[in-house]
Fold these 2 entries.
Entry 1:
Amino acid sequence: MSGHNPRSVWRRKPLEEMEDETVKSGLFRSLGLWQLTAIGVGGIIGVGIFSLAGLVAHGDADNPGVGPAVLISFLVAGLASAAAALSYAEFAGMIPRAGSAYTYGYVALGEITGWFIGWDLLLEYIAIVAVVAIGISGYLDAFLGGFGVHLPVWMTSTVDEGKGGIINVPAILICLLVTLILSRGTKAFGRFELAVVAIKVTLILFIVGLGVFYINTNNYTPFMPSGFGPVMSGAATVFFAVFGYDAMSTAAEEATEGKKHMPKAIILSLIIAMLLYVAATLVLTGMQNYQDIDPKAGFASAFTGVGLPVIASIISVFAVLSILTVMLTFLLGVTRVWFSMSRDGLLPKWFSKVDRGGTPQRVTWIAGVGSAFLAGVFPIRAVADLTNIGILAAFVVVCVSVIVFRRTKPNAPRTFRLPWMPVVPAVGVIASLLLISQLHWETWLRFVVWLVIGLVIYFAYGRKHSLMNPDSPRRLQEASLRG
């Protein structure tokens, strides 16, 4: 299993090549520390607070409500996420390159591992954008309902939800709007993200500050109405809400000082998000009995329940705006992973073409339309679980990679070294595998089918065309152009 055999599927990308590639990528360096942190916070906070907290607390047809213990679900998910975040931070300080977990796996564990994780992230990030669009659609419905406007059921829910719906039109339109914003370029996107994240954090502080006065401590009893099992299943679902820094790390090549700022931005964004999550879940389950929480628009229903429908309408408007940043972060993520895989020769070169503004327009629009399709025809929990299994798999790879890389490249320059090696990444691996085990078998089946499709594409195209293959047609073509 050598990384040195150029024809092996385990061939590893040399660390030394990374710097040259980032210089010639065509992507523009325009993101500073606070813009990177805003992208991270923008990716982490949103649908978790505004949709999934209510869904897990209340429960659904297949999962009993966990009640106020949704707080424990978030903390368990946050612990698993923190171990992975530190592993990402160490890699980001060494390899400030687009691609995130795909690139780290490629460098540390070999091409086939990098391919699997990259292929996995393409589906997961597109699915995240879709989940969030479905969440926004629910809040939009709640907002319009406050003014007595009710959209037809056929155009606001999917067939699987059993409400007589056919297609989720608002979710489709939201996906296309976000794609348009991202296609305007990274600099414009960075400014937009910073402004909207500031609004989002202010909104959550407002919700918590006002909601505290309406807490009824009786609502905290029973604290764990369905036992510990559903709390762990809930953690596997809300895990979706405690990553985002991994998508932010895909923008490393667009950071002004990637090696210095990426590790700080990753850790800062997770700390800010977890503090806000703990406060928000305590307020939500304190204001309203968990059985009465609207699983689609939790805070809107909580404020309506205490006689503040106007506040509920304001929350619905700002929830829509703030959740948009999650979509932007992950759409950015999928386009940069796709760009990176294409640049490495594993996917056709056509995908890595950037416009004069340094934006890969082709993959941006393909990913945007793909997310619109998923959002239009699938229910929220199915897409959320599909997302989680992929990200958890990526976390396992990154945590294993950081342990391997400490052994194989102990002297590589690192701007950040994670503490308590190898205990921290080992906790990340165990926690991620534990959360994966909580997911439904249908999620596993969809995931395996996607990976099998990826394996076929890798052996039919990627392995032959990879720039790491000395006989790669693209490598020979580029050599002849230089000659």
Entry 2:
Amino acid sequence: MSAQEPPPARLLGGAMTDAASLPLAHEPVPDDQVVAGAPTTGYAALDEHADGDRAGELGIWEMTPGTMRDVEVDEVFLVIAGRARVEFVEPALPAVELRPGSIVRLDAGMSTVWTVTETLRKLFIAR
């Protein structure tokens, strides 16, 4: 890649990225986060921005079947593919069932448990 070419998967004006089929390199979920199974996650940053003291990111995230704990960042996401259940441990809120088309807002610091039954892929905007 030359110095003038954009990084792979970066969104460019007027260009299209296929979020559903974008290849992602997966890594095992750290042992201290795994609740059940052997889930892996993959991730690709599509764009980043900085607005004063705030920075944000647009990207694709994917998790294979299994259950893991997480502490969230401030984000909104749209499920592209798969099925999962997200339980909110802290603060205690009703669980949500995710499917393609689900849009969810997460606040920074929320403690969650993700149970993925069908590989889940989401488009997220984090800030």
